[in-house]
Amino acid sequence: MASLYLATTDGGFEEILSAEVAQQGGIVKEIRQGKVVFERGTANLSTLRKLKCAHAILAFVRFIENVPKDRAALEILEAALLDKEAWEPALLILQEWRPDLRGRLPTFRVTAHRRCSVRPKHQYSSIEISGFVGSALHETMRWPVRMENFDVEVQAWLLDCTATVAISLIYSCDAKLYTRDSAGR
């Protein structure tokens, strides 16, 4: 499986971001609301760090479709992320961007974002999503959890019935490498 990146942007700017990714040598694979998934292609890391339209650059883990709105969703998310192979392409990207993490177990936290635009609403909170995604990562990789001063942040978005999971590389428009020093901003 190819290693994929995920870039986030404001809704309505996805086409602009995808054009910018392609102009830099990236290969756009999928466009979703506020997100562009792409292969690095011929783009180099310094170029990706400077994408003007991107809020964040992440190592894409996976989309999980048809997530129910009842509490069964939490176990579905966890089960979908227990597969070590699902994480491996994103971890290869993380190692390239964060060579300081090689040879050790990094600490991590999960930040979840949830939005439901149609009724019925989700029957669980973002904090519960974070817990189940974090449990899957801990069980799969044995990484220790740390809510502050963590090495890696995993992002989980749940928009209606589709979940997106990715690992933060660059956080915010200032294109700073996402490290524990920048996490508290």
The level-1 CATH class: Alpha Beta
- Report the helical percentage: 25-40%
**Strands, count:** 8
Largest sheet: 8 strands, mixed
CATH architecture: 2-Layer Sandwich
- Count the DSSP helices: 6
| Contiguous uncertain segments of 5+ residues | 173-185
Q: Kindly state the mean pLDDT as a whole number?
A: 89
Order of helices and strands: EHEEHEHHEHEEEH
Q: Could you tell me the CATH topology label.
A: VC0802-like
- Content of β-strand: 25-35%
The chain-level structural class is alpha+beta
Intertermini distance: 34 Å
Shape, per Cα inertia axes: globular
Total discrete domains: 1
Rounded Rg: 16 Å
Domain THUMP: 71-169
Subcellular location: Cytoplasm
Main location: cytoplasm
Keywords: tRNA processing
